[in-house]
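Morning F.,

Quick status update on the modeling queue. The single chain you submitted on Monday has been processed. Sequence for confirmation:
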Amino acid sequence: MSTVITLPVLLPMLGAAVTVVFARSPVLQRVVGVVVLAVVAALAGVLLVVADGSGPVVAELGGWAAPVGIALVADRLSALLLLVSTLVTLAVLVYAIDQRIADYGRGTASTTFHPMYLMLSAGVSLAYLTGDLFTLFVAFEVMLTASYVLISRRTTATRVRAGMTYVTVSLMSSLLFLTAIAMVYAATGTVNLADLAGRMDALPAELRTVLGLMLLVVFGIKAAIVPLHFWLPDSYPNAPGPVAALFAGLLTKVGFYAMLRTQTLLFSRDEPWTLMLVLAVATMLIGALGALAQNDLNRLLSFLLVSHIGFMLFGLAVFDAESVGGAALYAAHHITVLATLFLVSGLITRRTGTVALDQMGGLVGTAPGLAVLFVIPALTLAGIPPTAGFVAKLALLEAGVGAGSGPVAVAGVVIVASLLTLVALVRVWVRVFWGEPRPALPDDDPDDEVVVGTAATAAPMYAATAGLVAVSLAISVFAGPLTAMTDRAGVDLLDRGPYRVAVLGDAP
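Structure tokens below.
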């Protein structure tokens, strides 16, 4: 298993190299990408089964034992998110391949898309599996460098400006992250997470607070929590549809995963975290209210993405095993549902030629399959029973109700934010699918990455979107076992013992 844990990182990197070498063979590029991600998804499933049954799986790279060497660690949390993220990455790749075939033909190769796509997948896998802070920094840089290329391919001046905001904020957060790592190493003499879990408690309380807040700001920017979210609503809506779906599904959740991992492993707490409760409330409400004010479908979805990061923050703020496990379950659900909604938005844009809600209408009659693909993830995001969103929110609410007056009040905000989400999505349904059908608007920029205003949508694009809907429904069907497993993951996160023993081989 120590070999298996390295493959989700190595295979996409090797696949990226192959797609560069065979840049003039579009068929080979597409086959390599799909096969590599399918194998990684299978390996992630194996890691999840082993980690849940036997404990964390550890690989010591280069023959150097932790804490000196680099360790890769797959526990319940990282393996679950790796599996869900890889399934989303695979579905979005199928969607992107068939979109390109529909728009440019089968013989058109891409010299950048497939290598950068696979490198982004490798960065995401490394972020989930790494066992030390500096390698986490490297993972983020691999992931973000690939995303810089993907967000700026064959784009317009407006998209370039939005991409510059994304790049600038990402670089600033990376610089802050590197500074935080240097401070952690200066204070403790290590960057290994398992080793830090034992050394951090020995530091003065004031220094621990400073280090904790620095890491919170770094990962808060990457997760787009309020007030550090300002870059996201201008960046994601301007990316091509598949790229926006991939970013919405993965990047912010990797940031939240890093926040969840470091705050639980390095900074123990015995009571709910007041600062995080405040941030959760602000993120939920500002995101939901921002969505209600939008006429652009992608901007609306971007604000809802921000809002629902607040639900995960609520689970972290309560800071007990049940709430942390609920946050992990909500993250897994959120990865699938947001990626699905952005893919559906891309399908809607192809038909209507616009992202403006007031210029759409009547799609329930002209594209009933598209209406179904929208309504299922929309109800899931709003948390309507018995969807995966309802199961995840119920886990968070149950944890919050028993944790004191502060979490109980925030649990009420969770319900309000869910109602606001439902209102925003009903508004989309009424504007886009009800009413009289409208003619498609012409493509205002035929030279950009996406052809719009056409009904020529390849069937595999619908199939890929439907596959993500099926993943979301599977979370609902297997809600019992998944909830039990994320509860066990929550216990492990707060206990810290199993992680330390697996990596260092000593008692906590």
